């Protein structure tokens, strides 16, 4: 699962059999990209609120907001899987 521009997505576009398939793939890719970007925006904005309310309003490294939010929202077992996904990326 990714967004348009990632190598594995571009390879799928190159492997299409017809122009009809390209139109469908393009729609799916654009919708998925919008969902991914909206999710990233939601994590960032909710992270600002969380840090302001629970951590005193300052964050030394803003790039760690996803890790902080995962630990705050999910059970430790699920959080471990999600945090391992960061290392896998």
Notes on the structure:
- The protein is an all-alpha fold and 89 residues long.
- The protein has one domain (7-88).
- The chain contains 4 helices and no strands.
- α2 packs across α3 (65-73).
- The radius of gyration is 17 Å and the shape is elongated.
- The model has no long low-confidence stretch (mean pLDDT 83).
Jot down its keywords.
4 helices, mainly alpha, 74% helix, elongated, 89 residues
Task: Give a brief outline of the structure.
This protein is mostly helical. The chain has helices at 7-14, 19-54, 65-73, 76-88. It has one domain (7-88).
Distance between the termini: 12 Å
Question: Which value, in Å, is the CA radius of gyration?
Answer: 17 Å
What is the helix content? over 70%
What is the average per-residue confidence, as pLDDT, rounded to a whole number? Answer: 83
Q: Major sheet: size, sense and barrel closure?
A: none
Structure class = mainly alpha
**How many domains, as an integer?**
1
Strand residues, percent = under 5%
Q: Which regions are unreliable across 5 or more consecutive residues at pLDDT < 50?
A: none
General form: elongated
Please tally the β strands and state the result: 0
- Element order, helices and strands? HHHH
- DSSP summary: helix tally: 4
């Amino acid at each position: 699962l990714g967004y348009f521009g990632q190598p594995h997505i571009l390879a799928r576009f190159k492997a299409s059999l017809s122009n009809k398939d390209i139109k469908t793939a393009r729609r799916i890719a654009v919708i998925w990209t919008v969902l991914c970007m909206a999710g990233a925006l939601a994590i960032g904005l909710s992270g600002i609120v969380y840090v302001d309310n629970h951590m005193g309003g300052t964050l030394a490294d803003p790039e760690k907001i996803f890790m902080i939010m995962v630990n705050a929202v999910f059970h430790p077992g699920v959080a471990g899987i999600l945090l391992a996904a960061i290392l896998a990326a």
